[in-house]
Structure formats: C-alpha cells, structure tokens
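Appendix B, Record 12. Input sequence as logged:
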Amino acid sequence: MPEHAGLTPSQTVGPFLHLVLPWADGPVVVPLGTPGGVWIRGRLLDGAGEPVPDGVIETWQAAPDGRLDAPDFRGFGRSATDAGGCWGVHTVKPGPVALFDGRPQAPHLAVSVLARGLLDRVVTRIYFGDEATANEADPVLLEVPASRRGTLIAEPGPDGYTFDIRLQGDGETVFFDV
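Logged structural output:
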C-alpha cells in the first residue's frame, strides 16, 4: 500500500459502526416487566483496560425452554457501548440447548463484538455464575483451559448479571474461532 493512501472501509470498522447498527429496541430482547426478565450488563474494555466507547455487542440465545425456534421470542439483542464502554441487554435466561451430537450445553448466550480496531467480529459466550452444575458439564466450556473459564461467566447482581468483555491483555475474554 502506498504511504499516502488512507484507510478504506474494508481496513477498519470504526469508529462509525455504532452509529448505524443499533436500533431503538435492540437491547430489549424481552419487554421490561417480563416474568424472569433480567439485565445482562457489562463494559467493553481494550487491552489497557480502557473503555471502548464505540463498540456494538450482539447476543443470540435460545428461549427459556431451550427452543431455538420459539414463536414470539426474538432471541437476538444488540447494544451499542456508551462513552464508558457500558452495554446491556434485557432478556430472560435461556434454557439448555443440545449440541448436534445430543450432548447438553449449559444455558448461555452467544455473543459477537464489533469495535474499532477489529477487522472482523470476535465471538464469545456468556455463561451464568448461578449455573455451576450445568457449567461443569458443558462440553464447550470444558474445552477452555480451567484458568480462563472465568472470563466466560456472568456474575449475578441485583437485577441480573454482570459480564465485562476484555479484548486483550490481562483477563482477556476467551474468543472462539467460528
């Protein structure tokens, strides 16, 4: 690439993506007041532990009964990060889903992260800290080194769960090749 050439959209994803990808009810997977509804909130942090203010977090999940095709259940959320790197989705805890070979997985959300400096999304999962027995048997989580599994666990809080995503550095969230 010549020295004078600028970056093209295919060489960077930001900082403009948070302006066009979110929509008004994107963070609200289920309406506020839904029985069993919880917030999953966290911060998106860079390698130095600084907030990423222009990211987008997308979540996909099964319905509470574990179905992926439940009627009247969107199962998809999208939240832009704010100036402090904070994001959140209001949802219900998903039910367990089986892998293609029939092995059960612990309740979890699939997550994609889009942010400045990433040429492609990164993919991770959110497991629930109050599902210890299911987590201990989850075939995907068991493939992650024990010392890093904690980066995939959301901790219970007063109105839901907390889950920070670290893109690099100490405590980097585990990301999956998909």
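Strands lie at 37-45, 56-60, 76-80, 86-92, 108-114, 122-128, 153-157, 160-162, 165-166.
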